[in-house]
Amino acid sequence: MKKSLAPFLLLAAGLLCDNGYASETRWVHGSWVNVRVKPEANAEVLTHLVANTQVQMDAAASSAKFCAITWGEGQHGFIACNLLGDKALRLEDFVDSYHRSSDSTNYFPTRAFWMAPSFRRLQDAGSYFQETMLSPQQKALETVDSNFVWEKRPALKRYPIPEFEAMKHRMMTGIIEPASPYFQAPAPWEELLKLAKSEELPGKKTTEATARLHSSLFYPGVLVMLRQLDLPAVAPSYFKSLDELGRPSAGPEEISRQYQIPYAIKPLSGPYWDNYEPAGINVIGWWDLGKVEVFLQRPVIKNMLMLNGHIKPASSDLKYSLGVDSCQQGFRFIGPGEQAEPVKSLAQRRLESLQTKAKDEAILHFYSRKELPSLNGPAKVTTQAPVKLQYDSKAKSNTHEHFSQASITSIDIDNDGVADFVIAEAWHRGIMLDSAVHQPAYRVIFVNAGGRWYLFDTDQFLVCGC
Hints:
The protein is an alpha+beta fold. The protein has helices spanning 6-14, 109-115, 119-133, 136-141, 162-173, 189-196, 204-213, 220-226, 252-259, 346-356, 393-398; strands at 23-28, 32-36, 45-50, 54-58, 66-71, 75-80, 84-85, 187-188, 263-267, 272-276, 280-284, 292-296, 300-306, 311-316, 320-322, 362-368, 380-383, 387-388, 405-412, 421-428, 439-448, 453-460. A hairpin with a 4-residue loop joins strand 21 (439-448) and strand 22.
């Protein structure tokens, strides 16, 4: 059979520009690059292209300084040739703000933002503009030294930066949070238990490895407590995978990444002076951005697990306000009310709720994309009697967060005889607690996903201002 040459002719035609010269694929390597109507430095700016925009370069129509490009649907213009590359940029080739040092030469936060927009990268870009574009005079005015007088603090003067305005607009229209190497997926219980049992008194290497499983597990005392507890037998039950539910501490960014739901920001104010006692006097903000609201553009379901076993669903956009004091004293994951001291254990609160018919409270909450299918009545909640914790010779006097006893609360939400959540609750007499008696101060929450226990989250008794 005679094969048609049409596909090959079409392919060849696609590799040619209108003038007959072959085009070459290039990628924008600047962050927010001027595209001009003519190959001249002072020519009118047609538009801007951001990092990693793919373009076609017409070599014959280009000069050493300006390259003729086409992109999109037939758009064309001229761009500085030194801002193009023959390969796409990679985020892993840049250092980020967490690992940046004084001699880093590959820190480009604006390029990183356009390659994978996120609120954190917007903050990094704003801080970078503050470093590089604030005048020496204004920097001097904002320098806090021994002569600084709070009552005479200077105005924080900023001016609009077109690229930063475009970045803010991008975040205000909504983005889906990109993947992050810093996101800590829930760790299997057996991995945590192995680390907890590896040393009598967990040392630096062990605690660093544990913190990689969950950032708040850097206290050796938490490991010493956990290795003395037995979680209930586990088997496949209600949740088939971790993707089904979001952690109590998750914000819009994490839920956006998990459920592929866009989140956005709403600027509330510019940078501002802050006089917080432990940190001293500081300017809070990222260039001309200060207080900000962050929220999901499409709500999810916040499932409140109550003391009586009922689950109360509510729509939530997970909105939080950065720079606005929203401290809530007590445990974070139990609902809107504060826990007054002395702190009551889950067992005490459940018993009081049943005996006095007091206002029902939440034990914890978690998120889901949609409302949960109907359950077989209220969850079965079982709290074991507290276990007195034992400390080995090394751990007895050297362990920060020295817990005296701990208890296990099991929650079977579908009443199939298999626990779906476990809360390990630990008591101590911490320096931030007014009571002289030991009381609940730390909780570790586990979830059964696909017949395996995972470290879902942690919850501490917090005191505002500390």
